[in-house]
Amino acid sequence: MEKLIEEYRQGCELLREAVEGLSEEELRFQPAPDKWSIHQLLIHVTDSEILSTHRLRKVLAEEEPLLLSFNQEAWVDHLGYERLDREQHMLLFKCCGPACCRFWKI
């Protein structure tokens, strides 16, 4: 379990390493109109992480938590992922993981 927690904690750095050296054009390339760019995927990973950590807190704290899903396609389209600041979202992602790791040891 400790190894999994440590890998989770390093998630942001692993993502950064995976995209290191890619040009802005490569990061924003969409292989098809209905496929996401790497930039959009990075924003999505952050949004998913925020929601997942929220759900985990609800499960741990509430007797009958209501866990809501989200329409990821609507978020990409209506929140303008292509215009969002990737670096700002990567910083959010970096903060979420370690803040949540302590709950896994409860």
Automatic annotation (TrEMBL):
Ranges where the DinB-like domain occurs: 10-75
Signal peptide positions on this chain: none
InterPro entries from the UniProt entry: DinB-like, DinB/YfiT-like
UniProt cross-references to Pfam families, sorted A to Z: DinB_2
Gene3D superfamilies: dinb family like domain
Full protein name: DinB-like domain-containing protein
UniProt organism field: Brevibacillus agri
